[in-house]
Amino acid sequence: QVQLVESGGGLVQPGGSLRLSCAASGRLLSINAMGWYRQAPGKQRELVAAITQGGSTNSADSVKGRFTISRDNAKNTMYLQMNSLKPEDTAVYYCNVNSGRFSRDYWGQGTQVTVSS
User: Fold this and answer.
1) Burial 25-53 (b: 16+ CB within 10 A, else e)
2) Is 38 helix (H, G, I), strand (E, B) or coil?
């Protein structure tokens, strides 16, 4: 019954910015971690950035200094602010929530980010 819905993707020029949002609904009693993943054509899905329940964050080396993950607990929403976008950032971006004592993963449907001139 848990659902995650991403929004905010689109087409942007190199050097531009986008902010992705992930809205969660349903019964999430305990959240172990949340994060953003991305998958480009022909490539493995990779972790972009993650945030723990306590607020600690991690990000991939390729996006450090450019992307920032955050959350708003009151809105049950997670964000990914993406600045200085590069063509290699082009991918489908997925919201992920790891929840519960059995460490179950929930995924959104993905949102396309295309960085191109």
Assistant:
1) eeebeebebbbbbbeeeeeeeeebbbbee
2) strand
Beta pairing partners, 36: 49, 95
Q: Give me the amino acid identity at 93.
A: Y
CB 113 within 8 A of CB 8: no
Alpha carbons 94 and 109: distance in angstroms, whole number: 7
- Asked if 90 and 113 count as a contact pair (C-beta separation under 8 A), the reply is yes
End-to-end CA distance of the chain: 40
| CA 97 to chain CA centroid, nearest Å | 10
Measured in degrees and rounded to the nearest 5, phi and psi for residue 101 equal: -70, -20
Q: What is the tens place of the pLDDT at every residue in 15-68?
A: 999 999 999 998 777 889 999 999 999 999 999 999 998 889 999 999 999 999
Alpha-carbon distance 88 to 75, whole Å?
Answer: 31
Least confident of 24-38, 68-82, 101-115: 24-38
